[in-house]
Amino acid sequence: MSLLVASATESKVTIEGEEVVGLQSLDFKIIRQQIDVTGIGQGTLIGVAEAGMFKVNGTLRIRSLNKKLDELLYMAVPTPFSLVATLMKGGQQIKKIAFAECYLDDKSYEMETGGVGLTVYNFTAKAVREE
């Protein structure tokens, strides 16, 4: 198995094709819905039954604010958006991660003395595809 090391300074994240300026980090987690099967009276896991659904939860941490995400968050009717992370190393694309039908869940903001504001946007995506 080969190791792919991406450069955070070279990599880019876009929302609807527009680069996210001030991005500090992108985290995501793919959750597979499954049911634990335990032995009666044993208290141990003997297997899992897969329910088939995948869910993607993600977080964007952005220095200061992002106007596009704020607009999406405050829309009366939630509007889906696409998010693409292009991972780079040495000027070469090593991986592309595309999130489909994303919805913003919430936003938080923090600012420390002598620092710069940081906005945290949490989102849910219908699907993720890694190329």
Q: Secondary structure elements and their pairing?
A:
Layout: E1 7-15, E2 18-19, E3 23-38, E4 45-63, H1 67-73, E5 81-89, E6 92-110, E7 118-130
Antiparallel strand pairs: 1-2, 1-5, 3-4, 4-7, 5-6, 6-7
Description of the molecule:
It is a single chain. By secondary structure, the chain is mainly beta. It has 1 helix and 7 strands. It has a 7-stranded antiparallel beta sheet with strand order 2-1-5-6-7-4-3. A hairpin with a 6-residue loop joins strand 3 and strand 4. The longest helix is centred in the middle third of the chain and has 7 residues, at 67-73. The radius of gyration is 18 Å and the shape is globular. The two termini are 16 Å apart. The mean pLDDT is 92.
Write a compact overview of the structure shown.
This protein has one helix at 67-73, and strands at residues 7-15, 18-19, 23-38, 45-63, 81-89, 92-110, 118-130.
What labels describe this entry?
7 strands; 131 residues; globular; 7-stranded antiparallel sheet; 66% strand; 5% helix; mainly beta; single chain; 1 helix
| Helix-strand category | mainly beta
Main sheet, how many strands, which sense, barrel? 7 strands, antiparallel
Q: Strand order, biggest sheet? A: 2-1-5-6-7-4-3
Q: For the residues shown, what is the average pLDDT?
A: 92
> Whole-number radius of gyration?
18 Å
Overall, the morphology is globular
Terminus-to-terminus distance? 16 Å
Runs in which pLDDT lies below 50 for 5 or more consecutive residues are: none
What portion of residues belong to β-strands? Answer: over 45%
User: How many helices in DSSP terms?
Assistant: 1
Order of helix and strand elements from N to C terminus:
EEEEHEEE
- How many strand units? 7
Binned, the helix content reads under 10%
